Structure prediction request, 610 residues.
Amino acid sequence: ASSRPLQVLRAIGEYLSVGDAESVAALARLPDLDRITAMDLSWTSSLADLDRYRREHLPRALRLPLPGAAEPTQGLSRLIAALAQMTSRLEGKVQPINEWAEPLADTVLSLYESLEFNPPMPEDQDLLQSLKETGALLRDMARVRPELARRQEVSVADAVRVILRLAATKTVPEADRGPAIELLDWFEIPVDDAPVKVIVGVNEGSVPEPIAGDPFLPDTLRQRLGLASSKSRYARDAFYLQATLCSTPNVFLIVGRTASDGQPTPPSRLLLACDDRTLVRRARRFFSQRVESGGAVLVLYEPGDYVQFCPPRPDPNAPLPDSLPVTAFRDYLTCPYRFYLKHILRLESLQDRVEELDPPSFGSIVHQVISIFSRRPVARSGDLLYSWRELDTILQETTKQLFGTKLLTAVDLQIEHIRRRLRRFAKWHCERIGEGWQMLPEWVERPGVLKLDVDGKPFEITGRIDRVERNAVTGQIAVLDYKTSDTERDPEKAHRRTVNGVTVWTDLQLPLYRYMVDAGGSADVLLAFVSLDAQRETNTPLHEAKWTREELSEALECAYQVVRDIRQRRFWPPSKPEREDDEFAAICMDRVPRRDTMLSNPTPPWELAS
Prediction:
């Protein structure tokens, strides 16, 4: 029941009976689905679009039209339409089981009819045999007597389950691969008719097979109860060995002297169950210090002096950016190589099993709702009730736009958590207006840009500042960034750390925002995080940064140095990961033994050749 045609039928049955996003993804990922020729479809890119849409919108089902107002990509729309077209004859009806044979056969045929088979290839031999077996099962289904089939009408999913159950009772013979050495189980050796047999591993602990000890069922009690015991296992294996010797002209027994860890491995007791003269001869032969060698072993590759595998070295010809977002500087300061993968090669990790909003998506919804709220007149009123109602309305509209009306249970709970954060934001926002702070409308609509002249060449830093305010009384400007985590965010801990007694910058977000608002650095600007967690209703959500002008100048100089390092292509080697779930952990070999040694190896010859 694991053949490729049966895998297709199983996935189609799940797709039509369940119809959720998981079953759609499982069907779309079957290798044979690219056999669809009715549509000019790039399957690989469409699968990436599928994963991206599921991550952003978490739909319960994936049928056109898709839930929400967000438009799917052309590739995703065509993929969903292709699956619907392929299963159009099977969907939405029940009928006698014998009448399902023809439409199921046509569906399988549509996937494989244009495939060119090469019979000498083992893969094609297996597929042809599987198609024959699937066809035989469908013919059996079609032969069910009509008067019996009409007693109970079934869906296509039920019909597929019947086919899979029947297939599980059948054994598909292996195709003839030509000359080969057949590997048999210990119990199959006595009845095999081969004239030559080689039995390996005839050591104590393997033959006879040991019995695991049990304090409640000792071996003597097992014997009295007629259960498998050491004595019965010894008798059984002795019988198998004797039967093999009597039925086979040529038998070779291979006994290992040492295990892989160097420990000695004695021969099986079965080999020592003989007369005294034979026992002495076998013991002398086995325990003799002289080991007869069959000559040197030929190997395909000679072992090298070191392991040459390592993460791919940065491409010296990869185009470099002349603009970066503010958040990219943290990526570079954390690990230049991961920065290279993410911002130079533009690699990203797409999960195909999404059941809830991940932290970035959760925070994105909060930011989106507040951004829409900030552009509406009610945001400047200071009225708590109206502000909260407007935020809740925007949240409902945004949720419907992103996810439709039927939300996953986990997403529904997360939306409630967002609602609690927005309620706290509304209270803080109105208190802020009462203190004389006014949002600057020119910073609500447009992203910030900081233009640098780095060694005579221009470079732009972009970023969307969450909130820029001016105090009507003091004239002070405040640059605020919203944080949605459940832990308070200290700007100092988020931007700097001490290494060997020296304080270094690890993130430049707030300092660069400050220079976007005031490029000259002369204005009185307050920098702070606004913590929108839902647990601290009494504490102030505002967390100010206490940096001096000199420290902010150091942060700006750090940004200049990062740009210089990028232009000089200083991306190697990878740093140690900050998180266990780092998306580039596999590429950077974070969990590979002797990683530091591998990173210090020379460039592999296959990379030099390219």
